[in-house]
Design brief:
Length: about 350
């Protein structure tokens, strides 16, 4: 009996370790599966379109939805068969679409997609307002949810699935029962003349570990004329926002929050460790080249940094020391880098 229990525990532990997987896109046609336990590539899937950008895992970890071909295609990636199940044909006849922002509901049967539609007429193009559509995953049928202002780059869905949050120049809260924007959190469009506009770029999404969607911001204080930076932290479960000021600007593309929500790590030409409780930068290390995106291990002890070159660099979060460099089969560029749900 003891031997059987030991064997069962070993198998369970192995399964848990195997489940710490990540996905990111690479040029020209690929989704890479990265094993964050062993710090190695676990597989690659060829996409039909070029240059995957957004990546949204299904709740059961069996599928990934990705945009390709300049954000024009929406592909369904089957992680079990390591193949493309299908392409969701959501573009109406006579239109071309550009997709910026995807989010999947908790059942995994409905996607919310931010699209920028352009009508192709005989003698001209007509640009329609940016819109949020819902997409039935099984049928590919779409339904318009709401129009949104220009500049939306990412979407999030609250835990109760009543509110869709569109991250653009501001944060727009869309009531899915009313299909309209019912609230706005100001970023660029500050209501007070004493508050500087918060400039953010929400292209890199990796909130799976903490539930916090964190984006660096830059601003100028209108009173002191001092340039400042910090993080805008959106709790995707309830839609609440926190702003963390961090002082003089350091160029950054993206950030990821630790599972315990006490720390954040941000990247561009440097890697920063940030104490969110004390609201200060605690460590800075220079990188050998520009990086776009990072994700973090389930235990918060390792940071996976990628983008702008065909590598994933693994860092110790306590020391910011490089642990390992993993070569990729292509350049990930500005793709997402998402953690898959444990299975």
């Amino acid at each position: 009996m003891k031997a059987l229990l030991t064997f069962a525990f070993t198998v369970a532990l192995s399964f848990a370790q195997e489940s710490e997987l990540y996905v990111l896109g690479v040029h020209p046609h690929g989704i890479v599966i990265f094993d964050g336990t062993r710090n190695e590539i676990a597989g690659q899937i060829q996409t039909r379109g070029r240059a995957p950008k957004e990546l949204v895992p299904s709740p059961d970890g069996k599928f990934v939805y990705t945009t390709t071909d300049g954000r024009a295609k929406l592909e369904v990636v089957n992680l079990e068969t390591r193949s493309i199940d299908r392409v969701l044909e959501i573009t109406p006849p006579g239109y071309r679409l550009t997709i910026y922002g995807l989010v999947l509901n908790g059942k995994g049967d409905r996607l919310y997609v931010h699209v920028k539609p352009v009508r192709e007429l005989i003698d001209r193009y007509v640009v329609d307002p940016p819109q949020i559509w819902s997409v039935d995953v099984a049928t590919g049928k779409t339904q318009k949810v709401a129009e949104v202002p220009q500049g939306v780059a990412a979407l999030a869905l609250t835990k109760d699935e009543r509110t869709l949050i569109a991250w653009g120049r501001d944060l727009y809260y869309i009531d899915l029962a009313q299909n309209r924007i019912t609230d706005t959190f100001p970023l660029m469009n500050q209501p007070s003349p004493t508050a500087g506009a918060l400039n953010t770029l929400a292209l890199f999404i990796q909130f799976e570990r903490s539930g916090i969607f964190s984006i660096p911001y830059y601003t100028r204080d209108p009173i002191t004329a001092k340039d400042l930076m910090g993080l805008v932290n959106l709790d995707v479960a309830n839609g609440k926002v926190g702003v963390v000021e961090l002082g003089s600007p350091i160029p950054l593309y993206s950030a990821v929050v630790s599972p315990d929500r006490k720390r954040a790590y941000a990247v561009m030409n440097q890697l920063l460790a940030i104490d969110l409780e004390k609201k200060r930068i605690t460590q800075i290390t220079d990188l050998e080249r520009t990086r776009y995106v990072a994700n973090i291990s389930r235990d918060g002890k390792r940071l996976f940094v990628s983008g702008a070159a065909p590598f994933i660099h693994v860092y110790d979060t306590a020391t910011l020391q490089l642990i390992k460099t993993v070569e990729l089969p292509g350049d990930p560029s500005v793709t997402s880098f998402r953690a898959l749900p444990a299975r």
